[in-house]
Design a protein that fits this description.
1096 residues, 16% strand, alpha+beta, single chain
Length: 1096
Amino acid sequence: MASNTQIKPDDMLNQPLLDALNVEQAKDENKKKLMSINGVEGLSKLIGVSIQTGLTDAQVVTLRGKFGINQFPESPMESFLSLLFKALTDTTLLILIAAATVSLIIGLIEDPAEGWLEGTAIFIAVFLVSNIAAFNDYSKQLQFRALEASSQKDERASVLRDGAIHRINPKEIVVGDILILQAGDMIPADAIICDDSTVLANESSLTGEPDDLKKSKDKDCFLLSSCLITEAEECRALVIGIGTHSQWGKIKANLVSEAVNTPLQDKLEDMTQTIGYIGMVASFGTFVALVVSIWARHGGKDVAQGIVNAFIVAVTIVVVAIPEGLPLAVVISLAYSTKKMYQDQCFIRVLAACETMGNATNICSDKTGTLTENKMTVVEGLFADTVYTQEQFGDGSTMAHEVKVLIAEQVAVNRTAYFVHTDQDGKPLPKPQCIGNKTEGALMTMIQQWGFNHDEVKNKVYDQKKDKVFAFNSGKKRSTAVLHNANGSVRIYCKGASEWVLKDCTMMMDTKGNPAPLSDMKRNVIEKHIEAMASRALRTLVLAHKDYSKASELPANWMENPPDNTNLIFDCVVGIIDPLRSDVIDAVRTAQNAGVVVRMVTGDNVATASAIARQCGILTPDGLAIEGPNFRKMTPQELDAILPRIQVMARSSPDDKYLLVTRLNGHGIPATKEEWVEKFKDREGVTFENDRDKLLPGFRDEWEASRPEGGDVVGVTGDGTNDAPALKAADVGLSMGITGTKVAQGASDIVILDDKFSSIIRAISWGRAVFDNIRKFLQFQLTVNLVALLIVFIGSVAGFDPPLNSIQLLWVNLVMDTMGALALGTEAPTPELLQRKPYKRQASLISRPMWRNIVCQSTFQLVLLLILLFDGANLFGIEEGISCAKYSIKSSSLLWNPITSAQANSTYGTISCKSFNTFCKDEGYSCLKATRVLPTYNGVEVRKSLEDMTDYTEKCLTCSTKDYTHGTIIFNTFIFCQVFNEYTARKLGDDMNMFSGIAGNYIFLFVSIFTVFSQVFLVEVGGDALQTTPLTLIQWLITIGLGAGGLIVGALMRLIPIKDDPNSFFDHKQHSNYVVAGAAKSDDEVAALLHNDKVV
């Protein structure tokens, strides 16, 4: 097919053709098929898209109708039935099901009318417990899917449509769109490079290939969705695969992500296992006591049923003892908190980060966009040997035209940033939005004010086929552009860090735009001006250029390494203001009050960084501001000597940030000789034996010896692709949602959606709330566990029927697991959380005040329940244990002689089975045991009870209605003790006001109301299944009042003066003891360590 043939889009364009160009792991074959239709140019003609202007709105509608939208299939969720089956395979539930089955069979054999009740009730309880567990797991899946959907709504990609760049949601991309990609972008759809740019892409997420791959139009031109652009200037690519027809879409449909425990969950599961073992011991003891009571108390009657019942109670104790609600509480608290944190502009990518952030001891923060507004404006500078103050700076009307043209040309070409003028809905923005580097945006705005259009200037002088733009190089601290002029000459433009670029300048531009020698005096003037601007917290940037008379003079490798660091001509230095965020000073102060050290890590020079750090409150009088080049030369011992005082690191490289983080928390420090050698294999003359303790970040043995209590918990912010190693090394990586690249966001644990430092502080607050909520629930559950185990065990040993039967224990388990976790796991953070220091990594989950609270509440509840168990019948005027409320007569022919209490014939027998109706019709055991005058055959007065007649009850009567009042009072009191204990558990320390903030916690109030109404329902209608008897109003009021006594105990116990162990908190003053003996203390000594002549 000839390349000049006019082809209509519908002639050949279809999904099979696009699929044939996009076969997995077949790049060479795909390229051959692409070339068979005349390459990307031929494909663009098939689609009908102009590579220069992109699709029109009408084409977008047509192609969306033909090929669909760029929506990826969701990973399959585990079904509710599957989760239910998992819940039912829990060992303790399986044992309980087996025991219930045995109970049901024996019950039906011995008592067909009512023997099925207990077994059936246990089955119902198991059904409820397993369904609730499955529902919780299913809800968790739904919650995190909703969170993921929320984050996807905020994603943006750049496309070229109607000749303008638009920022749209990746979902709106269609086949034929022209993508605009930069370093750090995630590729939103499968595409083919359609310009002459060369990029590096990381496809490890899709193909497993760890190394970055070079991509270009002439060779490997295929870009795959979900992969990352790691290095590029600006790349344009034609979309060929979207949604399920992209390579990522085909894989994603089959991906199932496995849930991974957080560190807190692991710690709680260990505690759960320990408590479970204790419960098994108590369970075995209870089983033995109940089996013994079959003979000791019941005379060996119903042995089989008695053993089954004892086994059921024992298994139920294990079910109650195992606090499976602890991991559930973590899940509920994390799910609730992550949803709330998203509303607070913190998107949690890794669940563990939420809890870890609460105990962060250090935050290493970027400056631009996090502490400042990232609204860059050029306000002054030195242009072509002329100083322009903020008052003089304006439209450049007083500046020589030649100077402005040269600077405008550099700004227009040497950039990766661009402006968009409409929002995602196509509506005009109040002012253009800069996408990319905001410093470049400030320079672009500056030349616009001078009357230049950056796009027009670039299109005029820049030829993509022979010119090249090099993105910012962190090693050289500059970005560069190489331009081939029409007259055959070549110009190198570079801009970057003032000190770095200025030291490479040998000439300067005079007021007329001509090169002139850069004398020492002139250099000194420029340096003084840079220092003056930096001291006013202005970011400084030097622009320079270099000329070659012809292209052949360029080095052979200029395409990989441009000649931009020698013999440069100084053009100008600009001062850029970036105002502090309005909330940053308060946020920094709050973090410091919370025991968190805030450190600024920035690429600015030390004067600018120090000035801004002082404004923020980060740099204190006894703090240090150091520069990256000096930092990286230090030995681990030298660094440790000043590490606690370092508050600002200026002129830092991404590797400097990584070294700082690893020295603080120990992550990534080589632990073996092999790891150390691998890390430093590129350093000449370095040996493990001589240098392992001399090079940063150090060696594991040396690091651990200097920090016996472990390292810091470090949070690190980052927005660039090069920040990824530091974000990974941090305990919590915090990427920026607005300015952050996809590489940085992919390496982070939390995405700060609004880029504000104050949002990081809110993340700390929520993290501490999660940690405290889990401890509140732990305090509550251990109290319930302890009391339930002891009351059942003591009651069984004392010969009573179990004070809490198996069904009641399962309800208790439900109350303290699901309901308790829901109530206490959803408390919102309070300001008081940020008024304490962070806990150490190894700090116990149960603090001293918590033990005090658990012991006091458990003692109160246990004493109360034991009184009700042993003397409750007398106190309430009821029958002890399980008795009969109403008997019916089952025989009428038997007679008893009251004198002998034995059965007799009609001559001596005067008491018959029917006599019960005479004395006690429709009554129960109270009447049966009452002493009365019984008639005799000879008229002798005999005072006895019907119960005194031998075997009278067994042979004459059947209990038609049982009386569980005694057990119900114990059960009801126990439950209301837990209802009110939930309120006292809301506070971990000495706060007497247990109701503060309760009105705003609707979930807690709902749980309380639900628990109370459910308890009323169970008591009033539970009957034989639950072994409850409806209580009188007086009994209800008394049992509720007894439970409410826990509130009084909760207040009084807080008067006991027990405080948290000070050693459980991270104290920076104590932690600084890892500073080596004889370390530098004075500023002069520190300056010597820094290889510098002064300390900032």
